[in-house]
Fold this protein.
Amino acid sequence: MEVINAIGRRKAAVARVYVQEGAGQIVINGRPLEEYFPSSILQYVVKQPLAKLDAVAKYDIKANLDGGGFKGQAEALRLAIARALVKINPEDKSVLKAEGFMTRDAREVERKKPGQPKARKHFQFSKR
């Protein structure tokens, strides 16, 4: 089987994924999944699309992650893996879409406005 690639984004994080048949190894930026994401919750998030299709030990995944924080990176990686799995087998799309793995979360950080401490917070108004 040839290598299938896909891309996933979340907030400022970008995940480029290369999937091929194998023993279920996930390597992120040259490090194994357990080392890159020590949190078991984030490991679970990354493996969700694979677990839904019972394909955890079916594919080897090599990923390049860039930007954002660890939560955004994990969710970007989840989207990229889901997209790659759909490229491999288009019939799986409805199953993954029902779980929400095919949807790009488009929420971004709102910019800070001048004359304010944050995006929406204002300095206290003084009448006198």
Summary: The first helix runs from residue 33 to 36. The beta strands are 4-10, 13-21, 26-28, 31-32, 59-66.
